Recover the amino acids of this structure.
């Protein structure tokens, strides 16, 4: 089979690999669609993984073969494949920190989503894989995982009906956050970005106010839109320490700032701790998702409350994978890029 193999910064090659062999509790899936995620881009640009790795984890496809002990899925089923699965019983899981579970990352797909076929681990087959409704395309189904990550992040912020949400970064994840904020009852949603064309998309996706963080007085604008208070929730969907620092100044006293995006390695952020102490601003992170959010994300997309098809700007073949990464890194015309092996 063919797969896109990472060899270093800017170096990804399409190579032949052996077809994965599955065990009794595993499944072999033919990848029909795989989304290019911002975390894939960080790894590609900054060398965060070892050479020889196959990236990609936002996968939808067809079950080709199921192990002898698999009963809930079979050959021919159209499926969404979860990225990881927690154990649900350890200290991390019992405290709601499912993505910190020590069993989480070892359940990753093999070799990676930018391949023609993948092996899905037993826990993912039994607890996480979902059948795709007939009305949903493979491309849309591949974005269920991305939507699930955003949903988990917003749920951690404890959004209340009528709250004001500021989304920093109008890339694919930011645009999903805008829509989810609306679906979860936000009263007002503001979107920030450096690119006007992305802000236009943010308007179409439901943002009430869009601001160019390079040209507009963002702090003053957020204060004006919130009666001088600041936002209840600030979701930072771009891996920038400058954006993170600004986000803290956008939150109201007692507000929540969610660090949703991964920053380049070695990044640091200088914060006056008295702001956290005196204003009780909550800083939190949110990494990945679990089957708990995956099912809800699928239902939101299936019901039409979240439009992921409108985020897709490019559909490319596996042989065009390097072009896909280059398009994503340039940020000139690309939103969500889907690879169709």
């Amino acid at each position: 089979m063919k797969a896109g193999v990472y060899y270093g910064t800017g170096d990804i090659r399409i190579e032949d690999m052996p077809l994965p062999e599955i065990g009794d509790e595993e499944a072999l899936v033919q990848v029909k669609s795989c989304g290019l995620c911002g975390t894939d881009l960080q790894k590609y640009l900054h060398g965060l993984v070892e050479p020889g790795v196959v990236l990609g984890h936002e996968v939808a496809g067809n079950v080709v073969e199921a192990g002898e002990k698999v009963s809930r899925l079979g050959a021919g089923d159209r499926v969404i494949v979860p990225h990881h699965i927690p154990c649900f019983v350890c200290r991390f899981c019992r405290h709601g920190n499912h993505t910190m579970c020590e069993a989480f990352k070892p359940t990753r797909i093999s070799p990676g989503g930018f391949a023609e076929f993948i092996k899905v681990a037993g826990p993912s087959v039994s607890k996480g894989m979902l059948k795709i409704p007939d009305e949903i395309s493979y491309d849309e189904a591949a974005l269920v995982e991305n939507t699930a990550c955003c949903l988990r992040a917003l749920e951690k912020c404890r959004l209340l009906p009528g709250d004001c949400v500021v989304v920093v970064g109008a890339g694919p994840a930011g645009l999903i956050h805008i829509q989810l904020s609306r679906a979860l009852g936000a009263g007002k949603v503001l979107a920030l970005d450096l690119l006007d064309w992305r802000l236009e998309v943010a308007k179409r996706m439901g943002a009430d106010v869009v601001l160019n963080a390079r040209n507009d007085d963002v702090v003053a604008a957020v204060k004006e839109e919130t009666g001088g208070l600041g936002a209840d929730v600030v979701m930072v969907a771009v891996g920038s320490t400058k954006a993170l620092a600004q986000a803290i100044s956008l939150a109201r006293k007692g507000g929540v700032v969610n660090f949703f995006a991964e920053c380049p390695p070695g990044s640091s952020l200088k914060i006056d701790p008295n702001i956290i102490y005196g204003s009780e601003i909550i800083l939190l992170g949110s990494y990945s998702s679990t089957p708990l959010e995956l099912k809800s994300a699928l239902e939101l997309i299936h019901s039409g409350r979240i439009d992921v098809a409108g985020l897709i700007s490019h559909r490319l073949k596996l042989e065009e994978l390097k072009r896909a990464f280059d398009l994503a890194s340039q940020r000139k015309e690309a939103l969500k890029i889907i690879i169709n092996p």
